[in-house]
Amino acid sequence: MDQQTAQTQLSQLRLELNRYRKAYYTEDAPLVEDSVYDQKYQQLLQLEQQFPELVTPDSPSQLVGDVPASNLAKVTHEIPMLSMGDVFSFAELQEFNERIKNAVGHPVDYNVELKIDGLALSLVYQQGQLVQGSTRGDGSIGEDVTNNVRTIKNIPQTLPEPLDLEVRGECFMPKAAFAKLNNQREQNGETVFANPRNAAAGSLRQLNAQITAQRQLSTFIYTVVNPQNIAVATQSQALEKMTQLGYHVNPERFVSHDLQGVKAYIAKYQQLRDQLPYGIDGIVLKVNDLTLQQQLGNTVKVPRWEIAYKFPPEEAQTTIHQIEWTV
Ligand code: NAD
Question: Where does this protein hold NAD(+) (predicted)?
Answer without folding.
Answer: 34-38, 83-84, 113, 136, 170, 286, 310
